[in-house]
Every structure is written in C-alpha cells, then in structure tokens.
Design a protein that fits this description.
Layout (H helix, E strand, L loop, with lengths): L1 H26 L1 H26 L4 H5 L5 H9 L18 E5 L4 E4 L9 H17 L1 H13 L6 H4 L2 H8 E2 L13 H6 L13 E4 L14 H4 L1 H14 L5 E4 L5 E2 L2 E2 L4 H15 L5 E8 L8 E4 L2 E4 L1 E6 L2 E2 L3 E2 L8 H18 L7 E4 L11 E8 L4 H20 L1 H5 L6
Parallel strand pairs: 3-14, 4-5, 4-8, 8-15, 11-14
Antiparallel strand pairs: 1-2, 1-5, 6-7, 9-10, 11-15, 12-13
Helix pairs in contact: 2-4, 11-14, 13-14
C-alpha cells in the first residue's frame, strides 16, 4: 500500500514538472529557442575548429559549392557565427612585398627566394661593415639620449594590479582580465628581443581590415588607406633600423567585392599561416589597423613638430566575463602577447609620452595565438589624415626597435648585463 502511494506521488510530481515546462515554453518560446540555438551554435563551432586544428582536413572542401552548410546553420540559429569560414581566399605572392635593408628597395617577395651567390654575400657583408663604421658617431650621441630616459612608472607601481589596470589599460565589460594576466614581474621578465638577421625576413606586417581609410583617403584604398601606412612602417623598419620585413598588402575584409568584416580574421589567419610556413624566419607579426571613433574625436599629437596620429596596442585574452576562458579560442601565447605590448607601451611612455593611448584588452583572440611576438595595433582613426598616420610610423618603428633590440629593457632597469 505504501509502495503504491509512493508511486502515485512520483507520478504527480512528474506531471507537475511537465506542466511547468509547458507553461514556460508557452510563455517564453523565443527565449527558450534562443538558448537552444546558442548551445547548438557554440558546440558546432567547437567541433569544426577542433577538426581543423587537430587534423589536416580542409573543411572548406566538403562545405563549399552549393552545400551552404555553415550559412544554413547560422541562419537557423539566428546568430553570427565566430567559426572559421575556411573558404579559399585570393592569397597570392603578388600581394607580398619584401623590404630588404641590404638594398633599401622594395621588391616582390619572389626576389627573396632567389639563391644568393657567394659573391653577392661578400658584397653585402662589406656594405654592412662600411655602414657600421659610418654610424659610430651617431651611436655615441644615442648613448647620451639613453642616459636621460626614465621609466614613466616605478617597478613598485607596476607591481600593483589595480594601479596597472587603471593607468595602462582599457578593459570593456565583456572581457575578463585577472591579476595573473597583468603580473608585471612575469611580463617584464620576458625578453622580447630578437637577434637581428637582415638576410632573412623577420617581421611580417599585414592588415586584417585592409579596407580601412582616413579622412582624406581617395578611391585608391591601397594607396591612401591603412595598407599605405603599413608600407611606410615596413620601409622605416627596413631602411632605418635594418630589419628584413614582409608587407602583406592583401585585403581581407572585402573579398570578391563583398565587404564582410566578420570573416576577415578567418581569411587573414589562413594567409598569415601560409606566409609563416613559407618564411619560418619570421619572428614578429603585426596586424595594423586604424580605430573607429566618433566623428568629433581627433586622435592627434605633436612629435618633432609633426601632427601625428596616436596609436593603441591591442590584446585579446580569450576570456569573457560571462563564460570565463573561451576554450575554442585558446591562446598559448597570451602572456607573451601581453608582455610584448606592455613593454612597447612603457617604452612609448619613456620616449613619446602622449603618443599612445591606453592598451586595450578584449575578450577574444584576434589571431594573436599565431606567435609569441604577435601584436595588433590601432593607428589613429577614420578622423585622422593620411599624413598624420604616416608621421606616426616613425615613433612606432622606433618603439618596436627598442623592444626588439633589447634597448627598452635598459630604460626600465631590467638589463642584467
């Protein structure tokens, strides 16, 4: 008898649960559908990305043509998908220009692949020795400048997480930044310098949003937009500082006449990975953008008498306030990326106090997982002129060289030699 009563209670309980579920579905079907769609989309993204990262399968081959699988999935869940598109882009070596400091001329990257004869190598070495002798007096003057530089903040101040976050960073609400992310003792102990070798490409500059333009840009997007600014940066790093630089002039946010920024990072990722495969000597990658701000905001300062666009170093931590760590956007180089941008920011404060805005940290990845010395830079905004942007590449190149040469460690009192 007691057993029957217990079963009856269970049945009544289940009926109440079912009734409650039906009431919820009847009252808020849209919210329930949204939750189910979000779960479906997230799991689909994780599956596709896992397949691509853990195998050599080209998912684009089974999804392209008329199947429209990803498009149908995105439409069905009514949500813009972050999943890599894996469509074939227009990657071509015609869009790669190499800035060779041995010649101080820009050439197509194919030139860099030619075999250098022994005679050419000897001539290049003799030229480098002659240039070194000519530059000795300049180095003496440079040493005087070094002695006058002082860090903007003490190491004690930089050890305080709250101080660092409020004085050096902008973090939107959607991003989650933890004290261990900005442990400056760890970040400043990382030596981000490289051994310069001008005989091979070591720096890659590209533009995920290559269609970005400025207040006085013309229809010649590559000639008067952010790609032209990247060319200027590559030229200075090569001709002034002696780095061998590859500049990718491909446009990723307007493919086949279709403007789509949501897929630009997918397109640029594929191309950058191929460039790195073809050029394993590359140790630094810079994704150069310009910011988008309200029309009455003009990001400009004066450096050496020139109106100069202000810049911002940008990081992604692959962690959101709502979900925590975003596993499918894992970045093994997160700490290195943060170290690279922090050291550049502190060097900028030493040399050009008003040149940089606060470093920005957002929740996602932005392809910064491709290399320890990966950096996304926002140079000015749409309200700047092209000349202000070009002027900004001089101090930016100086800052980058200071970090890559190890000079910035001396300014911060971190050089142990």
């Amino acid at each position: 008898m007691r057993g029957n009563r217990r079963n009856l209670i269970i049945i009544v309980y289940l009926l109440m649960v079912i009734l409650l579920a039906r009431v919820i579905i009847w009252i808020e079907p849209a919210q329930l559908k949204k939750k189910m769609s979000e779960g479906l989309s997230e799991n689909a993204e994780k599956l596709v990305i896992y397949i691509m990262q853990e195998s050599n399968i080209k998912v684009s081959y089974i999804m392209r043509d008329d199947s429209n699988v990803m498009e149908k999935l995105a439409d069905s869940v009514n949500r813009t998908s972050n999943v890599y598109s894996f469509v074939e882009n227009s990657y071509s070596k015609e869009n790669l220009v190499i800035y060779d400091p041995n010649t101080y001329k820009t050439t197509q990257i194919a030139v860099a692949e030619q075999t250098v004869t022994q005679e050419e190598h000897v001539v290049a070495e003799e030229k480098k020795e002659a240039e070194t002798v000519q530059q000795e007096p300049a180095k003496e003057q440079e040493n005087v400048v070094k002695e006058t530089l002082a860090p903007a903040f003490s190491l004690e101040q930089l050890a305080d997480f709250d101080f660092v976050k409020s004085n050096l960073y902008i973090v939107p609400e959607r991003a989650s930044v933890l004290p261990e992310d900005l442990d400056t003792k760890v970040l400043l102990e990382k030596d981000m310098s490289i051994v310069k070798d001008a005989s091979v490409p070591q720096i890659l500059i590209y533009h995920t949003h290559g269609s970005e333009t400025f207040a006085d840009s013309t229809e010649d997007i590559k000639g008067t937009g952010i790609i032209a600014v990247g060319g200027k940066l590559a030229e200075i790093l090569s001709s002034v500082y002696g780095y061998n630089v590859i500049h990718c002039t491909e446009i990723f946010d307007n493919v086949n006449g279709v403007f789509d920024r949501s897929k630009a990072y997918d397109y640029s990722r594929e191309t950058v990975q191929q460039i790195l495969t073809d050029n394993p000597s590359v140790q630094v990658i810079i994704d150069l953008h310009r910011d988008g701000v309200r029309e009455d905001l003009h990001l400009v300062t004066d450096i050496n008498g020139k109106p100069t666009a202000r810049i911002m170093f940008f990081n992604g931590v692959s962690r959101s306030s709502a979900q925590g760590d975003i596993s499918y956007l894992y970045n093994q180089y997160r700490s290195d990326n943060l170290s690279f941008s922090l050291q550049a920011k502190l060097e900028a404060l030493c040399k050009y106090p008003d040149f940089t805005r606060k470093n920005y940290i957002d929740a996602y990845q932005y392809n910064l997982d491709l290399m320890p010395r990966a950096m996304l830079i926002e140079a000015g905004a749409q309200t700047n002129t092209l000349q202000e942007e070009l002027n900004a590449m001089e101090p930016l190149a100086d800052i980058l060289d200071s970090v890559l040469s190890g000079e910035s460690r001396e300014h911060l009192g971190l050089d142990s030699n």
